[in-house]
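Hi, can you check this record?
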Amino acid sequence: MIHKIFTQSGLIDKAGADLGRVLNLGSGQTKITGAVNLDINPRSRAEVIHDLNAFPYPFADNTFDTIVSRSILEHLSDIPAVMDELYRILKPGGRLIIQVPYFRSLDAFTDPTHKAFFTARSLDYFVYGKKLFEYRYAKHAKFNLVGLWFGWPSAPKNPARRALKAFINARPDFYEKYLSLIFPVKIINYELEKLR
């Protein structure tokens, strides 16, 4: 699914029927045609203006098949509450695509509005079956981890970068412990599926 959202050239600009009903969180000027675009900024091109730190979100339960969150979570104050809200508005079996700056990236710390930093295990608190899920920080959020990718989800054109990316994505624990200081990626991507 994530490869239907992010392409070699960037974020899709049109939601295909195969994605179902799509919510594009924090769309700003990057609107996805055919999706419901939401942003806090009234000068954005979004159809829905809403602060994602204010609960509940202005949508009914089980509204969306796909939710895209690109460079948004790191700006929000209460990640467990946000994950609960996203869980609430996502249909059962729906997909939540999250892209955030990786904690080793210089970009993660450059922006003074960033409040959270993400590793490969950061969202394990919301993934059923993971050890960190036992802490139950969220009241309702219960997801399955479909995929985790370091860097842009599509394959780089450079063969050396493509090989390095394949290696680090096949061995995320090894990468985080031993290589992430030497070869830091800018972003990390998660694909989650809503469980009942």
